[in-house]
Amino acid sequence: MKTVSIFVPESSVLQAIADPQYCFSAVNQFLIASGRDPLFHVELVGLSKDIHLNEGLYTVHTNRLLKDIDKTDLVILPALFGDMEQAIQANKDAIPWIMEQYNKGAEVASLCVGAFLLASTGLLEGKKCSTHWGFVDKFRDMFPQVDVQDGSIVTEENRIYSSGGANSYWNLLLHLVEKYTDRETAVLTSKYFAIDINRQSQSPFTLFKGQKAHSDEEVRKAQEYIETNVEEKLTVDELAEKVAVGRRSLERRFRKATNNSVLEYIQRVKMEAAKRSFETSRKNINEVMFDVGYSDTKAFRTTFKKVTGLTPLEYRNKYRKTDLAVS
What we know:
The radius of gyration is 23 Å and the shape is globular. The protein contains 14 helices and 11 strands. By secondary structure, it is of the alpha/beta class. It has helices at about 15-35, 85-90, 95-105, 115-120, 135-140, 170-180, 185-190, 215-230, 235-240, 245-260, 260-280, 285-290, 295-310, 310-320; strands at about 1-5, 40-45, 50-55, 60, 65, 75, 105-110, 130, 145-150, 155, 160-165. The longest helix has 20 residues, at about 15-35. A 7-stranded mixed β-sheet has the order 5-2-1-6-7-11-10. The protein has a two-stranded antiparallel sheet with strand order 3-4. It has 2 domains: about 1-200, Rossmann fold, CATH 3.40.50; about 215-320, Orthogonal Bundle (Arc Repressor Mutant, subunit A), CATH 1.10.10. Helices cover about 45% and strands about 15% of the residues.
C-alpha cells in the first residue's frame, strides 16, 4: 500500500486538491474490480485541520496534520492561487516537512503552479521543472537556478515530478498511475476521466504576449518593431540599425531582457500571428504563411510545429472557429 499525501495549501485551487484524491481513489476501485488489492492510501494533509479557500467560500477538512506524519510515499502539492509570493509565504511552515519527506525517500509531485511552492524548498535547484505556460517568466525570475521547461506537460527528475498548466496536471496523475500500476490501468483511468493520455505539450494553448517586464528601452523598441511588422522578413542587423545598437550588443541585451534570442522572438511573434489567423480567418496555409513574412513552406511548417507542437493543418483543424475546407 502506497500512502499518497495531498497537501492542502492556503491560497490554493480546490480542483487541484479534489482531482488527485478522486483519481487515486478511482484507481483503487478499478484494481478491486479486476480482482486485485487496492494500492493507494489517500489522505489530505495540512498545517491545520480546516483550510479555508477562496476567501472562505470553501473549507477543506484534512485527515492528518503534517506534524503527525513521520513518513509517506508520495507528496502532492496542488496548484496555488493568487499572488505567488503571498501564497508561498502563507505555506512557508510546510516547506521543512516537504524537504524532510523527500529526504526520507518520498516522491514529490507539483501540479501546475504548485511548482512555486516546490521550488521554494530548494529541491528543484539545478533540476528540470514544468509549470503553467503563463507563469514561466515569473517562475524564472523567482527561481533562476531551476531549469524550467517551456511548454512541457510532465517533467520527472530524481523522484520529483511537475506538470504544465491547468488541467495538464491530469497527465501527471496518469503518469504516476502508470508508474505505480501498469499501462492498462492508466489507459482505463484516462478513458474514465476522458483525458488524452498521450498529450506531451501545452504549446498549442500558449499565448505569446512578449516579455516586456524589463527596463531596457532599446530592447523594448526592437520588440515593438517586430510586433508591428509581422509581415516583414526581419533580420537582426535591420533591428540593430532601427534601435541604434550594435548587433552583438542587441543580441546580448535582448536575451537578458526577454529570455529569447532576437530570432526566437521574431519566430514566436510570427507564429502567434499565424495561430490567430488560423483560428479566426478562412485563409489557407500558404496565405497565412505569406502574411507573416515566410515564403519557404518547409521553413514555415517546421517553425510552426516547433513552437506549437502541431503542424499548421493540425492546428487549423483543431482550433478554427468556422467550418473551413481542408486545403
